[in-house]
Design brief:
The complex is a heterodimer of chains A (about 600) and B (about 110). With about 600 residues, chain A is mainly alpha-helical. Chain A is built from 28 helices and 8 strands. Chain A has 4 domains: about 240 residues; about 80 residues, no CATH class; about 100 residues, Rossmann fold (3-Layer(aba) Sandwich); about 120 residues, Rossmann fold, CATH 3.40.50. In chain A, the strands form 2 sheets. Chain A has a 4-stranded parallel β-sheet. Chain A has a 4-stranded parallel β-sheet with strand order 6-5-7-8, sandwiched between helices. The longest helix of chain A has 29 residues. Chains A and B meet through α16 and α19 of A and α3, α6 and α7 of B. Bound molecules: iron/sulfur cluster (4 copies).
Chain lengths: ~600, ~110
């Protein structure tokens, strides 16, 4: 019986794994807010749990989203996850059938071939099938070796760096399946119970006349590699495997990230599989910045050693978040870290005093950035005049900032002060619609202002409505127009079609190669506090090269900051949608000269 | 002098051996672009906070160099981080980062002489 002690590393490993996981899970769930706990309780016995299981199946085992972005990488993740799952499942079924009972200890199922050599019903089928799955996993292991050696094959620019404990975990994981192959091969050589792979290897072993101590050594290696992997799992990147399951469940129950960094944030942080897809999505590479992409930031959050320099150097463009196959809220996570880093010095803005706001139908908030691009401001006013809308220019003079730039910098308490101030004015005006010509403002109005019944409209949405209702009628010109999706409007607020609809009515609209939710960042983002101007320019040039590939007449955008950023980088006309629209209406109606300076 | 009914203006000369340079060093260490400021005042001209109050971001630059932390403390809280100054600055200075660093420096650094 002494031989059978080889199962001990596996049993100890599994025990340690289960206990640590239980402790982690429980402490996370205990730390959830009271409302979130209620959400879990309410959701548990509903269809949501089923739909979560379906998603867990698709994302944690089949890894369909990685597959979509990068088939080879997807295959690798799938072979490990799905293959191993099938191996364990079918292994158990095999041992149950063999024992004709369900009470089989787990190690007997895992090391089945060592314990049982005799013939039973379906024995041949199982031997071949298990060999097939093993081969499938081994192909993934082989890809993993190759990925470490030549990461470019996978389209990944740089693999993540490893710490010693990660290295141990990685090596043990890489060893598990080859060790299993050798162990089963050795047993097959002695007892002839192998399938088409292990049997063949057994044949080779027979040639060398191996004995039972060689066989036992192989099983020891297999069991030890399993044990080491299980023990290291909770303390390394592989913790993402069990955490992602929890993350998907909580998401299904409607639990969302909060502003402050808490246990929901931690669960998201630990769900990162370090697939590296976010590295590729990040434009910082062009400026040779390669230490602050989301995967590295998440690692720093786990290790609690994130520096300000890395934390604040990110455009918050959302390209990585869009690409992340796990669906981690990378932007908001980063902001929550910024909130924590800067919570000791928030401003109170006591100088803001409430004033009487006149009544209106439509309140127009232009925001700081639109004030910096007067052409946009005047075009918006002109269109409102032409359409005969009863509107109020809310922040025409001495307006306060919307609060979004503070929010992005993590100055949450300060932002709330500005939000309260502006919110009061908007509500006091009695407007049914709040018109905004800056996506940065739009985002914070939508996300944080709680304006109740008031319609919040970006000017592209609102002007499309005006056109469709016949209030304004633009004339189509021969100008070739391309459109740049601003990050805050596209990925930030999911508005892609309205600007395109308008542009199609005014000129010859052309698509660009990278657009909509994939679109590049203009580099002007206020989300980044420390990117230097020369580095910004490099990123801007890369974006412009994509946008201007086919020499359009006009580069259109729907954000004053994008416009301001782009004009400094090209001789091609850069215009906001409002400006193009007003031009086309003027051409048609030969507008009177007093339309100039219409905001004054 | 008093005898003759005159007063003399206080000396405006700056003795750099005596000013407290802790904050300016901290800022430039973390945001080197700040050392290229030419005090042109474009930032102040466009400033959203300056539009509502007497906040003057260019003047702050000088006060930081003079180590006048009490004035800075009162003033800096007015900035709304809107970013207009950054967009108009001819030297491409990350003014928002400078402001965050001032705030952080004032709260976390030991600035005593
Ligand atoms: S953050 Fe998302 S995309 Fe980036 S490595 Fe982690 S799981 Fe992959
Ligand atoms: S938000 Fe943009 S700049 Fe920041 S890490 Fe992601 S892709 Fe890079
Ligand atoms: S605009 Fe730039 S260079 Fe000019 S004073 Fe302001 S920070 Fe200095
Ligand atoms: S970021 Fe601050 S200093 Fe700069 S323009 Fe805005 S309010 Fe003024």
């Amino acid at each position: 019986m002494i031989e059978e002690y080889f199962v001990l590393p596996f049993i100890i490993g599994l025990f340690v794994l289960l206990v640590t996981l239980a402790i982690k899970y429980v402490s996370w769930i205990v730390q959830l807010s009271h409302i979130d706990k209620l959400r879990v309780l309410q959701g548990f016995f509903t269809r949501r749990t089923l739909s979560a299981i379906k998603k867990i199946w698709k994302e944690c085992l089949l890894h369909t989203r990685i597959f979509k972005t990068n088939p080879l990488l997807g295959y690798m993740h799938m072979s490990f996850a799905f293959g191993w799952f099938v191996l364990i499942l079918v292994g158990h079924i095999e041992s149950y059938i063999h024992a004709e009972s369900l009470s089989v200890p787990p190690w007997e199922s895992i090391f089945f071939r060592y314990f049982h050599h005799e013939h039973f019903v379906g024995e041949r089928f199982f031997a071949h099938f298990m060999d097939f799955i093993l081969l499938y996993i081994l192909s993934g292991v082989f890809l993993a070796y190759a990925k470490r050696l030549y990461s470019r094959v996978f389209g990944i620019k740089r693999s993540t760096k490893l710490k010693p404990k990660d290295r141990i975990a990685l090596l043990s994981l890489w060893l598990i399946f080859p060790a299993r192959l050798f162990a089963e091969g050795a047993t097959a050589s002695l007892y002839g119970n192998g399938g088409f792979v292990t049997g063949t290897l057994g044949g080779v072993f027979s040639f060398f006349e191996i004995n039972s101590s060689f066989e036992l050594a192989m099983w020891w290696i297999y069991s030890s590699s399993l044990g080491v992997f299980f023990i290291t799992l909770p303390f390394t990147r592989y913790m993402h495997i069990p955490t992602e399951v929890l993350f998907i469940l909580l998401r299904e129950y409607g639990i969302q990230l909060k502003k402050e960094y808490n246990s929901v944030s931690k669960i998201q942080v630990y769900s990162c599989s370090r697939c590296g897809i976010c590295i590729d999505a990040c434009q910082m590479h062009h400026a040779e910045i390669s230490n602050n992409q989301s995967v590295y930031i998440l690692k720093n959050m786990r290790d609690e050693n994130l520096t300000d320099r890395k934390l604040y150097n990110c455009l918050l463009c959302g390209r990585c978040e869009q690409a992340c196959p796990v669906g981690i809220n990378l932007n908001d996570l980063r902001i929550s870290q910024r909130i924590q880093a800067s919570k000791e010095f928030n401003s109170s803005y006591d100088f803001l005093t409430y004033k009487n706001t006149p009544q209106t139908d439509v309140a127009y908030f232009s925001g700081c950035m639109t004030h910096l691009t007067p052409g946009i401001k005047e075009s918006v006013c002109a269109i409102l005049e032409i359409a005969g809308i009863n509107y109020l220019f809310l922040d025409k003079e001495k307006g306060a900032c919307c609060g979004r730039p503070l929010m992005q910098a993590g100055q949450y308490q300060a932002a709330k002060k500005l939000i309260d101030y502006n919110r009061q004015q908007i509500l006091d005006s009695g407007a049914h619609t709040l018109l905004v010509s800056c996506p940065i403002c739009y985002k914070v109005f939508k996300d944080d202002y709680e304006l109740g019944q008031i319609n919040i409209k970006h000017h592209s949405e609102y002007f499309l409505e005006l056109i469709n209702a016949g209030y304004i009628s633009p004339r189509k010109s021969d100008n070739i127009i391309v459109y740049h999706d601003p990050c805050e409007l596209g990925r930030g607020a999911n508005i892609y079609n309205e600007p395109r609809e308008i542009l199609k009515k005014i000129g010859k609209f052309r698509k660009v190669r990278i657009e909509k939710n994939q679109s590049l960042c203009c580099s002007g983002s206020l989300g980044d506090l420390s990117l230097s101007m020369p580095d910004r320019n490099i990123i801007k040039e890369q974006t412009l090269s994509v946008l201007l590939k086919h020499n359009p007449d006009i580069l259109a955008t729907a954000c004053p900051l994008c416009k301001k950023t782009f004009v400094k980088g090209t001789f091609i006309q850069v215009k906001d949608i409002a400006e193009i629209l007003v031009d086309s209406i003027k051409k048609k109606t030969a507008l009177l000269p007093e339309m100039e300076n219409v905001c004054e | 002098m008093k005898k003759f009914g005159f007063t003399t203006a206080q000396s405006r000369s700056i003795d750099y051996d005596k000013v407290n340079t802790k904050l300016i060093k901290y800022i430039i260490e973390n945001e080197s672009s700040f050392s290229t400021c030419i005090s042109c005042g474009a930032c102040t001209a466009t400033c959203s906070a300056g539009n509502i109050t007497h906040f003057n971001i260019r003047r702050l630059n000088i006060q930081i160099r003079l180590g006048k932390y009490e004035t800075i403390k009162q003033e800096i809280d007015k900035c709304m981080l809107c970013g207009k100054c950054m967009l108009v600055c001819p030297r491409g200075i990350n003014t928002r980062n400078v402001i965050m660093l001032i705030k952080k420096g004032l709260t976390t650094l030991d600035l005593s002489d």
